[in-house]
Design goal:
Chain lengths: 220, 220
């Protein structure tokens, strides 16, 4: 069993890497910035995307691919903003992969898009292992999850270019040190760009929008 | 690739099922109740286990197997209560399986144990697919994660015998309907036993302790 398993996992990763590189080439040609957004369930990815679409409306055309095991709730929320959106239901799979992204291509108008946000399945483990063709990965960590997460789930912090520490409005009511999250995250990934935000109060979002707009500009 | 993948996944699940049945037979012979505790990262599993050990001290001998990708923080917290504990570091794997549990057998004194709590890796997806030899699965959902989780991650709600809705002390500060969690969870699993608790204030924990003690009694 074990050698077969190891060999197969490698094969899957290699196949995914090949498709993801093709996706990346496609997006590069269209000069679309693609971000792969990851977090634990309920950390606030969809709310952040909704705010981002509204804040950049008129400046940046945003498309969204929603990944969920089941349901279309998140895609419905995004559709209500007027942005292009496709929902992927993985039917059990714990992460998105390059092939799932590729299968959405026929349903999106990439000529009318500057930024594609891929909202991955809520999972702090598996999505970090798979590229989908993105320029970079972004992760959210919400303060009720606690400040031990960088040291317990290091891969996602290592693979991400930006960390959004969300739900800072809850800091008075939970035991969580932002300083510890910052210090431990930067130990794992010294280049990580960190934002402190609240999806509820919209605190800290302006810095995120400015950073993102610069990245979109750089891709043009 | 696809047929190989399907066949292999089945093989892994079958192999795991075989080992887990052996584990279950071992625990049954010792009349130890075994629960497999699952949740998203940071939902409060370790704090619940700490409270449970302290509350049942003198009545029930509890052993704990801690599952984390990396780190020993959780095992250290449990060790401070005086309970037997073993830490499994999965080194990347997103769930515990029967074989990992089996490998801890030499490090635990099962003759001095009435209840074994297996704290799974924080992940609302993958752990629900694998038995480890437990009598039943228990899951936590913390209210900051939101009330859409049963419909988005149905398998874990389907596989669990009990759901602990945790962090109810945060209800005034987040958008989350306990009624919706209850209704949607029971649609997926009509037999689910639901507790509303707070690891912080210890609200609702007495009902959990009473239910758990009855289950331990039933196993004797």
């Amino acid at each position: 069993m074990v050698p077969i398993k190891v060999s197969l996992v490698k094969n899957i990763l290699h196949a995914n890497e090949r498709i993801s590189v093709q996706n990346k080439e496609f997006f590069d040609e269209k000069r679309i910035l693609v971000i792969n957004m990851m977090s634990a369930p309920g950390a606030g990815k969809t709310t952040l995307i909704e705010h981002t679409i509204k804040a950049l409306d008129g400046e940046v055309n945003i498309g969204v691919i929603e990944g969920d095991i089941q349901s279309t709730y998140d895609a419905e929320k995004i559709a209500a903003t007027g942005a292009q959106v496709v929902q992927i239901n993985t039917g059990g799979a714990c992460h998105l992969d390059g092939n799932m992204i590729r299968e959405t291509f026929s349903q999106l108008d990439f000529d009318a898009m500057d930024l594609l946000i891929v909202e991955n399945v809520g999972n702090l483990v598996c999505p970090a292992e798979f590229n989908v063709g993105e320029d970079f990965k972004v992760m959210l960590l919400s303060v009720p999850e606690g400040d031990d997460k960088p040291m317990k789930y290091p891969l996602m912090f290592h693979e991400s270019s930006a960390l959004l520490i969300n739900k800072i409005d809850l800091l008075p009511y939970v035991t969580c040190s932002i300083d510890k999250i910052r210090a431990d995250s930067l130990k794992i990934n010294p280049n990580l760009k960190i934002f402190e935000i609240s999806g509820k109060t919209e605190a800290g979002l302006d810095a995120w929008y400015a950073w993102l707009k610069q990245k979109i500009e750089d891709k043009k």
